[in-house]
Amino acid sequence: MARQQSLFRRLRPADRVTLLFLGFLLALCAWHFSSLPKGTFLLVLYAVLFTVQILLARYNDHGRVLRLTHDIVFPVICVLAVFDSLEWVVHYVNPRDIDPVLIELDYLIFGNHPTVLLERIVHPVLTDLLQIAYTTYYFLPITLGILLLKKGDRSAFDRCLFLIVFCFYLSYLGYILFPAIGPRFTIDHLQTVQLEGFIVAKPIQDLLNRLEGIKRDAFPSGHTAIAVLVLYCAYRYERKCFWICLPIVAALLFSTVYCRYHYVVDVIAGLALTLVTVIAGNWYYERWSRKCRGGMP
Description:
The chain is mainly α. Helix content is 74%, strand content 0%. It is built from 15 helices and no strands.
């Protein structure tokens, strides 16, 4: 019992929320096993990630490599692996896409489709720049984490890591509950201007299409939620990083609609997700911190 309690106390909030979400996915896939095209693979994947998370929490203090793996490498691999796996989960457990509702809401707000309205400013240079801005989403959290570790601010790093992975998993839950594929697929026939860049836009688009496929990951906008959350964390703990990231994130938010990955409603939902993450995440983290200081698991 004492050993189990010791292991439980080693679990940071980021570890706990990862285990909780992986447990949820295991239960979901077991329940829908007969409907999943890769049910066995998914169960094995989530079980392996679950086990590795526990082992890293138990042995992360056994050398610098394990500590780095626990802090940076595994969270990145886990988030990406889970995201990639959703291609074989979402549509099979919830086959009703909500794109028609999102299209209608966007049209109700703007009197037209935002991606169609933006055609008047489409330009190859702008497309290149905004496509690059869109991809910074994959690097912003890692960059902030590395800066906090180099700074030696372990408390800030642990809190930010928890908030970021918590936000990722909440967005994945959103994809499962509200599947949507986005305007680049649903209203492409209404577009009269193609998104063409000079140099980088097309290669980046092709790479993302190959890596992401069709995952029904439009609502809420994870790009929005994570990018704004990184801004929030940077403002609190790494102010220079905040000022550097601010224009990048602003361009990223605009790119989500300009590049036709998201409806505007997705972006609004992404902002709401950031707010929920900050409020609920900080509440839990403070509660966990008080219990640790009081000697409780």
